[in-house]
Amino acid sequence: MNYQSLSNLDIAIAAALILINGVLSLCLNLGLGRQLLIASIRTAVQLLAIGYVLTWIFANAQWYVVLPVMSLMTLIAGLSAAGRGKRTYAGRRADSIGSIWLSSWLVAAVGLFAVIRIHPWYEPQYAIPILGMILGNTLTGVSLGIERMIQELTTGRGQIEMTLALGGTRWEAAQLAARQAVRAGMIPTLNQMSVVGLVSLPGMMTGQVLAGESPLQAVRYQIIIMFLIAAASGLGTVVAVLLTYRRVFSAQHRFLPAKLIPRE
């Protein structure tokens, strides 16, 4: 099977399809034309930039090159997760970065060292794409988990304060909100796992098949990636929710709703 290379003309033809969305926005008066243009330009520029960066990294495959790139990816993921939602609290960025860093790197280490067993461990062909896929999904779980936790604490303030007033502990007052938040953070990954292979072919599997890899071998890789994603997303969401819980409840079992502030 031959790998079909793509030219700039091929990319231009595909980019022209975005005009369909632009026409729909214009006809339906959606006001999305400017956003579509910006998003399209950002997509092309960011992906082309990372293509050149990865080319350079692959040519200089040393741990002191790969490790800073992985760290930067994780930092950006954490900051992105913290920037969502209508309300926030002091320390949310640290909680997002910490939960994503811990869960993603732990699960990625298991995948690289114990499952795929690459050598050396910093082989960029494996380390960077695998961590990137894990980060993207963990980011979503952490973001949704924290946002749902804040929402549940805000809307359920009366019940929480009543539980505490009747002598309940801070965990007894917050556990329902925490469970709802963790569930919300894990749902996207569970939905993805439910239809993978039936409704959609994931990017990694598609890329390997297009590159000429055996479909069965590509499936094995994709199964491993899906399990790594699920583990990291679940662990990251739980850690993020617990960190949020510690931020808004004092050690004296008092709820501190003043810490949940609207975004400017």
Shape: globular
Element string (H = helix, E = strand): HHHHEHHHHHHE
Oligomer designation? single chain
Q: Kindly state the mean pLDDT as a whole number? A: 89
N→C terminal distance: 55 Å
Low-confidence stretches: none
What characterizes the major β-sheet?
2 strands, antiparallel
Strand content: under 5%
Q: Strands, helices and their partners?
A:
Blueprint lengths: L7 H9 L1 H10 L5 H27 L3 H20 L4 E2 L3 H25 L7 H32 L1 H9 L4 H26 L7 H8 L4 H34 L12 E2 L2
Antiparallel strand pairs: 1-2
Helix pairs in contact: 2-3, 4-5, 4-6, 5-6, 5-10, 6-8, 6-10, 7-8, 8-10, 9-10
Short description:
By secondary structure, this protein is mainly alpha-helical. The chain has 10 helices and 2 strands, in the order H-H-H-H-E-H-H-H-H-H-H-E.
Q: How does this structure look, described?
A:
The protein is an all-alpha fold. The protein has 2 domains: 1-59, no CATH class; 61-262, no CATH class. Helices cover 76% and strands 2% of the residues. The protein is built from 10 helices and 2 strands; from the N terminus they run H-H-H-H-E-H-H-H-H-H-H-E. It has a two-stranded antiparallel sheet. Helix 2 packs antiparallel against helix 3, helix 4 (63-82) runs parallel beside helix 6 (124-155) and helix 8 packs antiparallel against helix 10 (215-248). The protein is globular. The model has no long low-confidence stretch (mean pLDDT 89).
